[in-house]
Design a protein that fits this description.
It is elongated, with a radius of gyration of 18 Å. The protein is 4% helix and 54% strand. A hairpin with a 5-residue loop joins strand 9 and strand 10. It is mostly beta strands. It has an eight-stranded antiparallel β-barrel with strand order 1-4-5-7-8-9-10-11. The protein is built from one helix and eleven strands; from the N terminus they run ββββββαβββββ.
């Protein structure tokens, strides 16, 4: 029996997410006709990579109270028990269970997302944007990560039906992460 390993553009090691040069964003339909975008301002994460992707692990933690949509009233509602209930569930946690190469530049990250007291499987798609040595001597990797989740899967069912059949807030939430990660000293 032979085992196939897939090399990646990312050198082996542990890579810590640099929150100053990264973003964790989301988009959801409002009234079925417009898209509301938001982000989380406080998060951390790490990617640990051996010689191939099959041995890789990715984890992330997000401060739920750091959510912003540029509307203070909406942000307060999102922090309430109708949505994230940040007093009872202050963090969102993601831990990979399997990383699978798609091609030389992209891979799937299957994992478990814990949010609002529930843990569900999620599949993310990651694309390597490149590696670079920054002016301070840090080796960096850029990743673009996307995914789609159902907020109802996490018990976030607040909504209202409209006369047209649309809902105030879509169940589907698009995730978009732009990650700059710094290779840690061995």
């Amino acid at each position: 029996m032979s085992v196939t390993t897939t090399k990646t553009l990312i050198p082996s090691g542990t890579w810590a997410v640099d929150p100053t040069h990264s973003s964790v964003d989301f988009a959801v339909k409002h009234l079925g006709i417009a898209t509301v975008r938001g982000s989380f301002g406080s998060f951390n994460g790490a990617l640990t990579l051996g010689e191939d992707l099959q041995s890789a692990q990715f984890s992330a933690s997000i401060d739920a109270a750091s959510i912003t949509t540029s509307d203070p009233q909406r942000d307060a509602h999102l922090r309430s028990p109708d949505f994230f209930d940040v007093e009872n569930y202050p963090t969102l946690e993601f831990v990979s269970t399997e990383i699978t190469p798609l091609d030389g530049h992209s891979f799937t990250i299957d994992g478990e997302l814990s949010m609002h007291g529930l843990t569900r499987p999620v599949e993310l798609i990651a694309t390597v944007q490149g590696t670079e040595l920054d002016p301070w001597g840090n080796e960096r990797v850029g990743l673009e990560i996307t995914g789609l989740i159902s907020r109802g899967d996490y018990g976030m069912t607040f909504n209202q039906a409209l006369g047209s059949g649309n809902l105030v807030v879509s169940d589907a939430v698009k995730l978009s992460l732009d990650i700059s990660a710094v290779r840690q000293a061995a």
